[in-house]
């Protein structure tokens, strides 16, 4: 059990609803495991109250920062003093640092977490041909992060095809050395295939892509955390592919989030 004292740095995770939030438990375990004197609690914040809550967090001097989750990730952008490059590119913030003067700096660590998970699994991103399925919130963060990490090609496909094309174009503008395309991918020709959709969470979900066409030397990576082995990962493993589960992204995000709030 975390012992909270007057020296403990306090963090919150702001969301609505909050019953499903497990990030607070994982961050508390992360801090406890590293001997960092910090504690995290979810805070149930309705959208209408977000400005008032942020104004209050600015004046609470033992607050190190806070996470933001659904539905605040975009709305919070306009309430901060500064936003990092990743947050600006993605158009959403999920962690905020409170500086001693009360100013608030936010950024998006979803993509850093995903890339960190791949690196921890020994996957080489530089020069890779990447096929990404999905262009939602997680997908946006991951696409920019994969280009930033040196992917040579990024093909994005999505159920709503216009979102894939728009994201591919935005990533291409930000990282011109990465060849981007928002269309039908050549599954057999990719080095890293990523599911950034929610497909795989529910029984009976379709596969995000035809895993039987992946090259056996390819890597298949997931954002979905439950189940840990999704049908996509199982099908890729059956092809002989290396697989990286959604949990790897989450664990690396904990490190990135504690770095951002200055508690590394
Ligand atoms: N591992 C981690 O640390 C981590 C972090 C963040 C998120 N996640 C997970 O990432 C997943 C996506 O979250 P998000 O925030 O990006 O959600 P989101 O913004 O709602 O985006 C959902 C994405 O999934 C696609 N999609 C949903 N249902 C589909 C279906 N039936 N068929 C085809 N495509 C479908 C959407 O396509 P359209 O654009 O066509 O709707 C969109 O690309 C969730 O499972 C979430 O739990 C994991």
TrEMBL record:
Pathway: Metabolic intermediate biosynthesis; chorismate biosynthesis; chorismate from D-erythrose 4-phosphate and phosphoenolpyruvate: step 4/7. One of its GO terms (biological process) is aromatic amino acid family biosynthetic process. Residues 13-96 form the Shikimate dehydrogenase substrate binding N-terminal domain. Its EC number is 1.1.1.25. Transmembrane segments: none annotated. It catalyses: shikimate + NADP(+) = 3-dehydroshikimate + NADPH + H(+). One of its GO terms (molecular function) is shikimate 3-dehydrogenase (NADP+) activity. This is shikimate dehydrogenase (NADP(+)). It comes from Bosea vaviloviae.
């Amino acid at each position: 059990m975390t012992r909270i004292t007057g020296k403990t740095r306090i963090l919150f995770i702001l969301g609505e609803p909050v019953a499903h939030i497990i990030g607070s438990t994982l961050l508390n375990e992360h801090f406890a495991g590293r001997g960092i004197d910090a504690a995290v609690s979810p805070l149930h914040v309705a959208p209408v109250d977000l400005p008032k809550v942020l104004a209050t967090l600015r004046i609470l001097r033992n607050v190190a920062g806070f996470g933001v989750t659904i539905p605040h990730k975009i709305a919070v952008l306009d309430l901060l003093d500064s936003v990092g490059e990743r947050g600006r590119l993605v158009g959403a913030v999920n962690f905020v640092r409170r500086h001693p003067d009360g100013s608030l700096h936010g950024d998006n660590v979803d993509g850093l977490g995903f890339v960190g998970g791949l690196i921890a699994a020994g996957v080489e991103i530089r020069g890779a041909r990447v096929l990404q399925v999905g262009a939602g919130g997680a997908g946006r963060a991951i696409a920019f992060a994969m280009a930033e990490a040196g992917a040579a090609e990024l093909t994005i496909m999505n159920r709503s095809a216009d979102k894939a094309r728009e994201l591919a174009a935005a990533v291409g503008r930000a990282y011109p050395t990465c060849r981007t395309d928002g269309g039908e991918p050549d599954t057999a020709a990719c080095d890293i295939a990523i599911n950034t959709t929610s497909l795989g969470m529910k029984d009976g979900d379709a596969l995000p892509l035809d895993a039987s066409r992946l090259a056996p030397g390819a890597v298949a990576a997931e954002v979905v955390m439950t189940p840990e082995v999704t049908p996509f990962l199982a099908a890729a493993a059956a092809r002989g592919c290396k697989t990286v589960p959604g949990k790897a992204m989450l664990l690396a995000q904990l490190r990135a989030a504690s770095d951002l709030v200055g508690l590394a």
